[in-house]
Design brief:
alpha+beta; 7-stranded antiparallel β-sheet; homodimer; Pnp Oxidase, Chain A
Chain lengths: 224, 224
């Protein structure tokens, strides 16, 4: 038996702030790493890294994103809330330092794209151009409209986005619809600041009560 | 330039159901892998795997969990909603097949713990015993009470849990509060059915506009 460390509610509350933030941010397990892309009313692009994207449904295709309580300088959140448009772009090993740096508090008028060296990618052309930019360096880009913008009890925001388009590197696409994120070098976040690549372990068959799980180590071939 | 594959809203809706589910479930990036533990009014334990836990805040410490629209046989959700208590336990490589198997639709009265070979772990003793079981085989266990139970527009549920206790393998705990999930063998999920272990890449310093990111490959030592 390994030794265990435990905290109750009071014990957690008594920890120094950063120590508690690092511990509690580790508790949900690995987190997705995405860049939120937006533009203001003048079309000036902005982006910020988030670790709080969650799948909500595939028909209709919906994703949720948690934003910490917005302040005056949360321009990505305010762009999203006022325009109703945003994008998500996966963070890979190749851009993880630039993506992390988007979390710095840049002065008003500075685009994080310029500041960290990422490239805005505008989906569609002319009148059909989607009004929020994605990230050119990313293998998986998604355009969304704001379906709901919920206020949570701790003053965080939970934005529910309806997927309008998806644009992925074809090399990731498996025959059955699965995207092989390990091939893309997509990142998994631990805690507040820890970046990980992923190793394929297995794809497992649809679970039924009366039969054992079947494991497949070839990720590309899929189940159909 | 790599070739890209794209879908608009109509293109996604026109895909065969399972193909669309696999694709859209891949879009959020890597997902956390947790077992929700509950008990019914008679104390009979139940558990199910979820890939939808999201960090909401560290003070107070709050986590969110998305549940698909509950049916009559969603006994974990109904236990959670009626008792107000649940646990989360990280899924590791050692238990990923058993954890996956909890998603099978077992008949009423069958505990997934028994069916898949996991062990209920009850935190606290006597009157202080927490009324929902965690998973003994897991290195990270968390006890929560239901703070809010939100109905989302697609009839999914978003349960907001207030953390009451945390119980972790001491070997994962770093000096600055960070938990080294790679040491634990904690799993990251891709799509509907793909399990991954993680490789440490770097911990990155708190981002400031006027200085470059500092990377640290020693995960244990932390930033304090």
């Amino acid at each position: 038996m390994s030794e265990r460390a435990t905290w109750d509610r009071e014990g957690l509350a008594a920890l120094p702030q950063r120590h508690r933030a690092r511990l509690v941010n580790s508790l949900s397990g690995y987190k997705s790493a995405n860049l939120v892309g937006t533009a203001d009313a003048d079309g000036v692009p902005a982006c910020c890294i988030v670790s709080s994207v969650v799948h909500l449904g595939s028909n209709p295709a919906l994703l949720g994103v948690v934003f910490r309580p917005p302040g005056d300088d949360s321009h990505n959140y305010h762009n999203l809330a006022s325009t109703g448009y945003f994008t998500l772009s996966h963070v890979t090993e190749a851009i993880h330092e630039a993506a992390h740096q988007t979390s710095a508090r840049y002065a008003a008028g500075v685009s994080e794209f310029d500041a960290v060296g990422l490239t805005p990618h505008w989906y569609g052309e002319g009148e059909a151009r989607f009004p929020a930019p994605a990230v050119a360096e990313s293998p998986v880009r998604i355009g969304l409209t704001v379906e709901e913008n919920l206020l949570l009890p701790n003053r965080c925001r939970f934005a529910i986005g309806a997927i309008q388009w998806v644009d992925v590197d074809e090399a990731l696409l498996c025959t059955d619809g699965f995207l092989d994120l390990a091939e893309a070098g997509t990142i998994a976040i631990g805690g507040l600041d820890a970046y990980h690549t992923a190793d394929r372990l297995a794809r497992l068959s649809y679970a039924k009560p009366d039969r054992p799980v079947e494991a497949r180590t070839d990720f590309r071939d899929g189940w159909d």
